[in-house]
Design brief:
Distance between the termini: 34 Å
Number of strands: 10
Bound molecules: zinc ion
CATH architecture of the largest domain: Orthogonal Bundle
Order of helices and strands: HEEEEEEEEHHHHEEH
Largest sheet: 4 strands, antiparallel
Strand order of the largest sheet: 1-6-7-5
Structural class: alpha+beta
Length: 300
């Protein structure tokens, strides 16, 4: 399932195409994928794409309608605004399409007067969701999620992670605490930090929380620069695969030697999800600073 780096890759891939584009029509082809009821009408003729944002695993397309009324008493002309939120689920994603026919499993299309391509939402397995809303903060996709993981400050992160009784594995993946991380990057981040996935968040000292924060930032940024990880179905909007799966240190490496200590990577299944870790480098009693210095000496 796409996590923050994959969704950010889609955002970057589509931003230039979408921003400033003039719409002619937006059509929903399968209503089952739509949620929320805050908007009765869809953007169409007279609407412009204003940009693409992201919060956690949710992509946010912004639209505005030009020349709509004036703010009472204000000098500035304000346009109507609308946002299209999308959560990729297992197989959802945006594509630019030039052909006359839509690909199979296209559930929504947006056409433009000044773009050769149209933008389509494709989701074969239909676990993804889209929602039109005037207020993203109050939407069903975002109203119950925590701060975006990439935007959170070191202090905010420490506050969140050291105040939960959840395991580090559970805490990093809990979207109500932090939005963006799933099974793949949780494993990679904890390995890089040298922390056991089974330790409780509140057992971390301040230094360990900082090490975890810097691991999280560097893993997510490296994954974004590689275009995310293609594991099952994620591809970029032009069909290319991401590249970060080739750099995974533990995820998907069951039984293979740990890059740090040489012992086999462990895999356990918890809540029907696979957890990968090194039982030596991430043993609960292990000092984080020691594992970091070991790794630094290996990298240098
Ligand atoms: Zn190891």
């Amino acid at each position: 399932m796409p996590e923050l780096p994959e969704v950010e890759t889609s955002r970057k891939d589509l931003e230039e195409f979408f921003t400033g584009a003039s719409l002619t029509v937006c059509r929903i082809l399968d209503r089952r994928i739509r949620i929320g009821d805050s908007c009765s009408s869809l953007p169409g003729d007279g609407w412009v794409g204003t940009g693409i944002g992201r919060h956690g695993k949710t992509l946010i397309l912004g639209f505005s309608k030009k020349g709509q009324g004036k703010e009472a008493g204000g000098p500035q002309e304000i346009g109507e605004v609308l946002f299209l939120l999308s959560r990729f689920g297992m197989s959802g994603g945006w594509r630019r399409i030039d052909t006359s026919r839509n690909p199979p499993h296209t559930h929504l299309e947006i056409r433009f007067s000044d773009r050769h391509s149209r933008l389509v939402w494709i989701d074969p397995r239909r676990f993804g969701r889209i929602e039109f809303t005037k207020s993203p903060d109050k939407s069903s996709l975002l109203s119950h999620v925590g701060p975006d993981t990439l935007s959170v400050s070191p202090d905010e992160f420490e506050e969140i992670v050291r105040n939960t009784s959840r395991s580090l594995r559970g805490a990093l993946m809990d979207q109500r605490l932090l939005a963006g991380i799933g099974n793949i990057y949780m494993a990679e981040i904890l390995f890089r930090a040298g922390l056991s996935p089974f330790r409780k968040g509140r057992s971390l000292n301040r230094r360990e929380a900082r090490v975890l924060y810097s691991s999280l930032q560097s893993i997510l940024r490296a994954a974004i620069s590689e275009g995310g990880s293609t594991i099952h179905s994620f591809t970029r909007e032009d069909g290319r695969n991401g590249g970060y799966q080739k750099l995974h240190l533990v995820y998907g490496r069951e039984g293979q030697p740990c890059f740090q200590c040489g012992l086999p990577i462990q895999k356990v299944v918890l809540e029907s999800r696979s957890l990968y870790y090194c039982s030596f480098c991430q043993s609960p009693g292990k000092s984080t600073s020691r594992s970091i210095s070991r790794r630094d000496s290996l990298e240098n």
